[in-house]
Design brief:
By secondary structure, the chain is an alpha/beta fold. It is 32% helix and 28% strand. The structure holds shikimate-3-phosphate (S3P). Shikimate-3-phosphate binds next to α7.
Length: 466
């Protein structure tokens, strides 16, 4: 199979540019003969957002090193500036950015007007929590995708805390309006959805609330907010209960200290290369400085369970002394024969952003993979269940949605074709990786959406292929 792929690939490479990208035009990806090289990823998007927001809340100067420079993080930086902080942004040679944020602290924020969240659900939901206790009269707006996303999940708890907040539309979509200051009170809140955004929004509001706020979730979700608040002097406690659910408590009101942050490489971005390296028959990729926080590393562990060869090198210290506060590692991935697996709802929640690319891995694995409890994917930047079933299906995959479960049968030869990314960065990157192992050209519509989280994605793809 590898030989056939190589011959076919050579013929195509001689006729076409490897990758063609012009603004919103489609991007063509051709099959690769081999994948090799070293990659430095965008700084973790979740940590970059939070570092900027916490820098606004803290009085003084915060240095953020190696933040991601995708459009989502820039939306947050724009809001932090609009809310009164001085934000200096410097480009780094690795396409990431360093920020210096100087703020007068949460209590001095005064704002009336519109705040643009772009495509970023994290920005809208977390900033809503911050604003709930501040002296503002703000509309949080976003692009068409964000305006379709559900906001009731933060409106309800923030209202229970005493916030004056409403969604633009009666069905809880259409952005948010927040008016303050309002005296906030602590709540004990159980969220039916496992969402780090909801948990974080409540915790950020709890900074201004009187008493101990408790957030309970069915399973643990990414814990960057808790780690970063703790590192900034805020009393936050978290535990996993005997039934596997998660409880986080924060004693308010609390002051956030200005603490510098080094941002690790984004594990969700790493997942694209981990899958590329695993499913391509001739691949070895080294990915430098990736965050391997236990609440973010599910994709690595699921791929290993499928039989992937992923080495973790030089795991960094978890302490806060290094300014990261998160474990980091270099990852080395090599071609491997994969087997289908069952993914439980808790594992799906832990790998929520990586499920689309894990579905691609499953198309190349022997046997059936079932990804259970993936309903939350319908509420992301696009309906990712519909998008992945349609897109991978068009490329030749055998994939179906069965209620909230995704069922993939493999292995199949992906054949290339034209696919719609629905303007969703994670679908665009998944289809691009599929294009590296397909037998023919893959054309991805609306592929410039990769800039939401990974502006250098297509440049990296070109660099590691031959
Ligand atoms: C994020 C949490 C997740 C994830 C998103 C980033 C965060 O969303 O999908 O890309 O930074 O907290 P949910 O918490 O809504 O699942």
């Amino acid at each position: 199979m590898a030989g056939q792929l190589a011959a076919r690939t050579r013929a195509l490479v001689s006729r076409l540019p490897l990758v063609r990208s012009r603004d919103a035009l489609p991007v063509d990806v051709l099959p690769a003969l081999r994948l090799g090289g070293k990659l430095t990823l965008p700084g973790d998007k979740s940590i970059s957002h939070r570092a900027l927001m916490l820098a606004l809340l803290a009085e003084g100067e915060t240095r953020i090193t190696g933040a991601g420079d995708g459009e989502d993080v820039r939306s947050t930086a724009g809001i932090v500036t609009a809310l009164g902080a001085d934000v200096l942004r410097t480009r780094r040679p690795d396409r990431n950015v360093d920020y210096v944020v100087v703020s007068r602290g949460a209590r001095r924020v005064r704002f009336a007007g519109d705040l643009w969240c772009g495509n970023s659900g994290t920005t809208m939901r977390l900033v809503a929590g911050i604003l709930a206790g501040l002296d503002v009269n703000a509309n949080l707006d976003g692009d068409a995708s964000l305006e379709r996303r559900p906001m009731s999940r933060v409106v309800e708890p923030l209202r229970a805390m005493g916030a004056d907040i409403e969604a633009g539309q009666p069905d809880g979509t259409g952005g948010l309006a927040v008016t303050g200051p309002r005296p906030l009170r602590a709540i004990d809140w159980t969220t039916p959805v496992a969402s780090a955004q909801v948990k974080s929004s409540i915790l950020l509001a709890a900074l201004a609330a009187q008493g101990t706020t408790v957030v309970r979730q069915p399973v643990p979700t990414r814990d960057h907010t808790e780690r970063m608040l703790r590192a900034r002097g805020v009393p936050v406690r978290s535990r996993v209960e005997a039934d596997g659910s998660s409880t986080v408590e924060l004693d308010g009101p609390a002051t956030v200290r200005a603490v510098d942050q080094v941002v690790p490489g984004d594990p969700s971005a790493a997942a694209f290369w981990l899958v590329a390296g695993s499913i391509h028959p001739d691949a070895e990729l080294r990915i430098r400085g990736v965050g391997v926080n236990p609440t973010r590393r599910a994709a690595i562990d699921l791929l290993r369970r499928m039989g992937a060869s992923i080495e973790e090198d030089g795991v960094g210290a978890e302490g806060d002394g290094d300014g990261v506060g998160e474990p980091i590692a270099d990852l080395v991935v090599r071609s491997a024969a994969l087997e289908g697996i069952e993914v439980s709802p808790a594992e799906t929640a832990a790998a929520i952003d990586e499920i689309p690319v894990l579905c691609l891995a499953a198309t190349q694995a022997r046997g059936r993979s079932v990804i259970r409890g993936a309903g939350e994917l319908r509420h992301k930047e696009s309906d990712r269940i519909a998008g992945i079933v349609d897109g991978l299906g068009r490329l030749g995959a055998r994939i179906t949605a069965d209620g909230d479960d995704l069922v993939v049968d493999g292995p199949v030869r992906l054949c290339g074709g034209t696919v719609d990314s629905l303007g969703d960065h994670r679908l665009a990157m998944t289809f691009a990786v599929a294009g590296l192992v397909a037998t023919d050209r893959t054309t991805i519509q609306d592929a410039d959406s990769v800039g939401i989280s990974y502006p250098g994605f297509f440049a990296d793809l070109e660099r590691i292929r031959s």
